[in-house]
Amino acid sequence: xxxxxxxxxxxxxxxxxxxxxxxxxxxxxxxxxxxxxxxxxxxxxxxxxxxxxxxxxxxxxxxxxxxxxxxxxxxxxxxxxxxxxxxxx
Length: 89
Known about the structure:
Layout: H1 8-31, H2 36-54, H3 58-73
């Protein structure tokens, strides 16, 4: 089991939006069964529903890991001297 990295409200919003996308794209797909873009929309909506049910977002996980790695190596914003400390004379 994965550790949840999104809140309950965020999860409920993802489930609602995902189900809306799946239902709209599914209804349109019944009228035009040959459109691959509608299949893609159905899969994206299903992914959002899955993220909401599991309360785990892979994109959020990667961003958190990158921020943590940046902080651990000391390349965060506090190590950058900034333009105010630069004096060319």
